[in-house]
Amino acid sequence: MGVYRYPENPILTPADVPPHRDDFEVIGVFNAGVAKYHDEIILLLRVAERPVAEDERIVKAAIFDVSAKGLRIETFHRNDQRYDFSDPRSIAPVERRKGDFTYLTSISHLRIARSVDGRHFRVDERPFLYPQTELETFGVEDARVTQIGDTYYITYSAVSARGVGVVLASTKNFHDVQRHGMILPPENKDVVLFPEPIGGKYYCLHRPVPSGNGSPDIWLAESSDLNHWGNHHHLMGCRPEAWDSRRLGAGAPPLRTEHGWLELYHAADEDARYCVGAVLLDLEDPSQVLVRSRHPILVPEADYETNGFFGNVVFPCGALLQGDTVQVYYGVADTSMACVEIPLQTILDSLGS
Ligand code: MAN
Question: Could you tell me the fold of the domain covering 4-350?
Fold first, then answer.
């Protein structure tokens, strides 16, 4: 398939981003939302940091303490039998009692990077969105950016001991930002807004995680003000024994094409291998799936995609339609950022086949 990986890939790595404080290290710069702002391409990066641990037998978890308005550091010993350290992303209690929760091994904030050519980025020194509320104590992650009129709406995962929910924020200049509160409560993430109202209503894709029946699938919802969402509709589900068998989530905000809304989504299989797929939704009625790719359009292949903090992950949070070409920015291996260009026609041809 005509996938052009930038020779500059990975275009941003942890070494390119200074930690926000001296006793921390950056371990991931990934899953960035994307926007075009004036003549620049902006990436709203997820920057994952952790306290520097001098001893390999120790794992430290940083938590935002709302009353102290700062970080609290919890220390764990790897030989502590009460915790499971097998997933590098988390510290999970082996026997979960009421009130217990899973800690994260890193805490994320959102940082801006800017570029004129889309390949070389300047990264801001300071965070753009930093954990602030009781619902963000474990970090803020995986932003998507949608321009509607002159406002850029940002949806991101707010992570805390209460679970993962989705917060809406907005900016007009990538300098000042307003939070509008949690629009979808836990367990939900991967919210992308459509870039224009359809039939007078705003639409979003979202990804609830049912705890009984059901699976982590993509849903559609509508709103008259972007804050209150209703008329939820199950849009598309996991497919048994396929590359998207385990979980799905919207990736980039939908791109308008003459054939329909093109949504690039991520999905994982039983081995937690994350690939990118495509689906076309009806322009007037996005609850109608016109055609969905049977095969992924992007799979982890390059070394920087297969190896890293959590390998075998390609995870898009934003794409730009530049003429006939789709420029997809995506996180790789929960470590770095990469970009591919794919001709729109190539993606359309791959659908349904
Ligand atoms: C989840 C999220 C993402 C992450 C993938 C792979 O979907 O936490 O941020 O990239 O898992 O670890």
Answer: Tachylectin-2; Chain A (2.115.10)
